[in-house]
Specification:
single chain, 155 residues, mainly alpha, Ribosomal Protein S7, two-stranded antiparallel sheet, 6 helices, 56% helix, 10% strand
Length: 155
């Protein structure tokens, strides 16, 4: 690792329709087997279904869902003296967004429904309303961090 200069953060290009980086991050996480056009179709279908179901701007709903799902702290297993502790760590903004996107997509994939676009749309709506599997996962993570707060000095 060079001490000369820090590496630049990789930034994703905004998507063509909404001109938003968050949407392109979501598309890149939905992506399976290199089928980016299918990932675009899934996400835009989810956005249109959220617009149809709520009557609001889907970008606002996506942002609300991301805010509600993004964790502040996570627990990380750390081995000290032969025993493993769950050490709570604060999460940076980029890592928090990545975790929120991952949790939203896994929750929508596990959801029962017809197609991925509708499942993702319903998960976004639920997350914006502060319920749903992804929000529950964030709350569980925060509870774990709170329970293991005594081990915070092991950072």
């Amino acid at each position: 690792m060079s001490r000369e200069n820090a590496t630049e953060e990789k930034t994703t290009k905004p998507d063509p329709i909404y001109r938003n980086r968050l949407i392109s991050m979501l598309v890149n996480r939905i992506l399976r087997n290199g089928k980016k056009s299918l990932a675009h179709r899934i996400l835009y279908g989810a956005m249109s279904s959220t617009r149809r179901d709520t009557g609001k701007n889907p970008l606002l709903i996506l942002r609300q869902a991301m805010i509600k799902v993004t964790p502040d702290v996570v627990v990380k297993a750390k081995r000290i003296g032969g025993s493993t502790y769950q050490v709570p760590l604060e999460v940076g903004s980029m890592q928090g967004k990545a975790l929120a996107i991952r949790w939203l997509l896994t929750a929508s994939r596990k959801r029962s429904g017809r197609n991925m676009a509708s499942k993702l749309g319903y998960e976004l709506i639920d997350a914006a309303k502060d319920n749903g599997t992804a929000v529950r996962r964030k709350e569980e993570t925060h509870k774990m961090a709170e329970a293991n707060r005594a081990f915070a000095h092991f950072r």
